[in-house]
Write a structure and sequence with these properties.
Blueprint lengths: L2 H9 L1 H7 L5 H11 L6 E5 L5 H7 L4 E5 L3 H5 L6 E3 L13 E7 L7 H11 E14 L4 H14 L11 H6 L7 E11 L1 H9 L2 H4 L3 H15 L4 E13 L2
């Protein structure tokens, strides 16, 4: 596991639960149909964090197994979801154990080649892998302002928007091409919520206190005494097991 992810997410589980967006209902409904989620199906939610996606999937009636390596994040997952300590590169399940695998906002942290081999192993022959991303709409001034504040601290860690994670999908023969759909999504946050949202970024959470405090003070000033709207494109990408 990347050391920044381990340190940052371990220190910021409460901020993650408070500040990170969930996933829009339309995206979950589409995914439910695409992955054929229903009672009796088993879905593995990898890098489950505090369970934001796991609980949405659980509402389909499927049996959800949340695999999360950070103990503080895993402890925040509410009852009703089976939790396991593990990583995408070493999944603690047997061969063919899952009908579907989901990854919410996390594949960029993985060793992509090793993760795809493990995901292929635990999926049943007609299973599929789904990636979900809340992609920030960088044309919005608020997102541009946040990026200006955090960029010096996040340039050295894996990021979704850089796109390096896609290389493993270009190399693999274990999965077919992505089917991709997008859904509009947004958060309305006051100053405390905006601080939690940015403070939950692993590279920010992992900073020494004397460096993190001024970063979050600048973020708080962006909201002031009002609320801000953070717009996203919820991107859902599904690849069938070959």
């Amino acid at each position: 596991m990347h050391p920044t992810a381990a340190a940052g997410f371990g220190a910021a589980a409460d901020l993650y639960e408070q500040g990170r967006p969930g996933y829009p209902d339309e995206a979950i409904r589409w995914l439910t149909r695409r992955l054929r989620l229903r009672p009796g199906a088993t879905v593995l939610d990898l890098a489950a964090g505090t369970g934001k996606l796991s609980h949405a999937l659980g509402a389909t009636g499927a049996d959800v197994v949340a695999v999360e390596p950070v103990s503080a994040m895993r402890a925040a997952i509410r009852s009703g979801i089976r939790t396991l300590d593990g990583t995408a590169e070493a999944i603690p399940l047997g061969d063919g154990a899952a009908d579907a695998v989901t990854v919410g906002q996390a594949f960029h942290w993985f060793d992509g080649d090793a993760a795809l081999r493990e995901i292929h192993r635990v999926l049943r022959p007609d299973g599929a892998l789904a990636l979900l991303w809340n992609v920030r709409r960088m044309e919005d001034p608020i997102h541009a302002a946040i990026e200006e504040v955090v960029l010096p601290h996040v340039e050295s860690v894996p990021r979704h928007r850089v796109g390096a994670w896609r290389g493993a999908f270009g190399r693999t023969t274990l999965f077919g091409p992505f089917e991709q759909v997008e859904f509009a999504h947004e958060q309305r946050l006051d100053a405390d919520g905006l601080v939690a949202r940015v403070g939950s970024i692993s590279a920010i959470a992992a900073l020494p206190d004397h460096e993190r405090r001024p970063v979050l003070a600048r973020i708080r000033a962006l909201a002031g005494t009002s609320t801000v709207t953070l717009r996203y494109r919820c991107r859902v990408q599904v690849a069938d097991r070959a």
